[in-house]
Amino acid sequence: MTANPATPLLDTVDVPADLRKLEPEQLTQLADELREELISAVGQTGGHLGSGLGVVELTVAIHYVFNTPDDRLVWDVGHQAYPHKILTGRRDRIRTLRQGGGLSGFTKRSESEYDPFGTAHSSTSISAALGFAVANQLANMPGRGIAVIGDGAMSAGMAYEAMNNAKQAGNRLVVILNDNDMSIAPPVGGLSAYLARLVSSEHFLSVREIARKISRKLPEPLHRAARKTDEYARGMAMGGTLFEELGFYYVGPIDGHSMDQLIPVLENVRDADEGPCLIHVITKKGKGYSPAEQASDKYHGVQKFNVVTGEQVKSSGGPPSYTGVFAKQLIAEAEQDDRVCAITAAMPSGTGIDKFSDAFPDRAFDVGIAEQHGVTFAAGLAAQGMRPFCAIYSTFLQRAFDQVVHDVAIQNLPVRFAIDRAGLVGPTARPTPAASTSRTFQRFPISL
User: Fold this and answer.
1) Among residues 172, 399, 416, 439, which one is catalytic?
2) Which is the catalytic residue, given 85, 90, 172, 285?
3) Higher-scoring residue by pLDDT: 251, 356
4) Is position 399 annotated as part of the catalytic site?
5) What pLDDT score does 46 carry?
6) Burial 350-388 (b: 16+ CB within 10 A, else e)
7) Mean pLDDT computed over 64-80
8) Is 285 among the catalytic positions?
9) What is the domain partition of the chain in residue ranges?
10) What is the mean pLDDT of the chain?
11) Fold for domain 9-302?
């Protein structure tokens, strides 16, 4: 397809089928235009920006290579799905994001056939994608399950529970690990990118299968040694031993902002018959927008903002926020009682535990996106004489109801839960440190 030079490529793309008519060398330009459209839209509506900026190229590449919506694409959490919405027939409504009657800030089944699964929590995407993959396999229908999951979401046990069952999906399951914090792999370089293309290629896989067939005819000790040699050689080169042990074929890490790396690797994985595959991509949260790249939170969640300067619209005065009052009072209690400690699940700034951590770093614990563990961890602390406070959003504490009942309440342990974001919530779901607003919340008095 040859576009009119005066016509932006994004104007020629309404759905992914249009995107696939472009030449590969046009995709970088399309990604640049998509990023500009995303910044402009969120500047008007507010919402989650940094995550979407980080997956612009990845979004374009996935829809270009895979046959969505037949291949079912599940975005973990949904914060990163704004570029996906623009490319899947919703560009004309993107400036209604999170408005009454407008587009959801997350993926939503009733909104589009390109949103096969609703994702608003975290770490659920692999389980859902596995369900799609196995269902298609059982029905003898084409179509994969594709999960895009962030490195932060990999702190939740549910992701590993899903991966532990992935083998039954065969090559129908593709997991794309979006690593935007360099927390798992070393920096991406030319060598690792070359190795990723090599090990995902048809030639490598063919040679590898021949070697497997030969090794199966060897005595069992030699067969086991050959298998382990193959796994660990690639694991040492690319850091994928953990995923290999869970039954995945690991490819990466690759540069998630390079079409030259993304397209051939995704195509190789699409055409391979290697079983469930995990592709490890390195991205930069807030990529391509200087104010977001320079912000400590990479503009995770923002109010409306000036696109040119990046300055966010500040909320008007009003009473102090629940978060600020809670943090101040908890610090005061901890100054009087060295048994007081605080736990949060990947939301230190949103709960005020960041301020407590500044004052008492040894008594503040961020357990990651692992609410179940956080609650039972608090129960263990309490059983040993500590006075833990769990500061977890109302919607996220749903994930740990069993632990609240079984591990805390039934044992009558002194764990305090400071819960907010219940009921009606203000303009942003997750406030940035610079822009916290008042919420409707259930108040819990601090009592030791």
Assistant:
1) 399
2) 285
3) 356
4) yes
5) 84
6) bbbbbbbbeebeebbbbbbbbbbbbbbbbbebbeeebbb
7) 93
8) yes
9) 9-302, 322-418
10) 81
11) Rossmann fold (3.40.50)
